[in-house]
Design goal:
By secondary structure, this protein is α+β, with helices and mostly antiparallel strands. A hairpin with a 2-residue loop joins strand 7 (173-178) and strand 8. The protein contains five helices and ten strands. The chain binds flavin mononucleotide.
């Protein structure tokens, strides 16, 4: 299995058309297991990822998913943020290992077998019947880097976040940067369509943070991360990265 997921950040794309072929559930389970022990690790957070057949999903399905991976989580103030971060590792692992994926923000299992836990997010997986990857970074339809940060200190790192997937491609992240720190916040709401998916902004933030931490690791930058556990408004800092040392 390919476990180096950093390069996949720069080529992954949503896949919504799939071949009518059975999926290797052993590989899927291996991917789920692998993601649990992979950086960035989310500690002290109970969750499970379940494999569900596409026919057993309900909700908003704008395409036919062969399989859904559903993340169930304990009640936690940062559950959606963590779910985004964890599922993005799964997304990148699938893509790195030849499987097409697409997030499904409004779909869940027809029957919830996890009484104690809440379904947070679903990822569609299947054998792609369209291109699995982008050829180069110009094919990402995204905001310019200048629209998602104030100063250019950490653009090389933030480039990995800029191209991260998000619900309705809303890209709700904004970074206040200094020479020795990166603070992640929500971008001021600019688009009316964002209002309809505001609960997914926390999932998006987790996805963006996953890319941020993978980029810091890739550049061998050591840091301390402080997550804000008492987020009261969307103007608060979500997480603060203090850069300790650039190796
Ligand atoms: C939390 C979340 C929910 C999403 N929900 C859907 C969905 O219901 N249907 C869909 O077709 N795409 C969905 N997407 C995929 C986004 O539309 C897609 O990631 C974005 O447009 C960027 O395109 P890309 O992934 O190809 O780079 C979702 C993405 C995220 C992160």
């Amino acid at each position: 299995m390919e476990i180096n997921i950093y390069p996949t950040i720069f080529k992954r794309k949503s896949v919504r058309r799939y071949k009518d072929l059975p999926l290797d559930h052993v590989l899927l389970q291996e991917i789920i297991n692998q993601s649990k022990n992979m950086y960035p690790i989310v500690g002290d957070f109970d969750y499970e990822i379940e494999i569900v057949g596409g026919q057993d999903l309900k909700g908003y399905l704008n395409f036919k998913p062969p399989v859904g991976l559903i993340l169930y989580a304990q009640n936690h103030p940062l559950a959606a943020f963590y779910a985004g971060m964890i599922m993005q590792k799964v997304d990148l692992l699938c893509s790195a290992n030849g499987l097409g994926t697409c997030w499904l923000g409004m779909a869940t299992a027809k029957s919830n077998t996890h009484q104690e836990m809440k379904a947070m997010i679903t990822l569609s997986v299947g054998i792609a019947d369209e291109s699995l990857h982008r050829d180069d970074i110009t094919q990402f339809r995204r905001l310019d880097i200048t629209q998602i940060r104030d100063f250019p200190y950490w653009d090389q790192i933030l480039e990995a976040v800029r191209i991260a997937p998000s619900a309705t491609n809303g890209q709700p992240w904004y970074f206040k940067v200094q020479e020795d720190s990166i603070a992640m916040t929500f971008r001021k709401r600019l688009d009316v369509k964002d209002i309809f998916v505001s609960h997914l902004r926390w999932i998006d933030a987790g996805i963006g943070c996953c890319h941020l931490l993978l980029a810091l690791q890739e550049q061998e930058i050591t840091y301390t991360m402080r997550l804000n556990h008492k987020i009261e408004s969307e103007n608060d800092t979500i997480c603060l990265i203090d850069i300790n040392r650039v190796l």
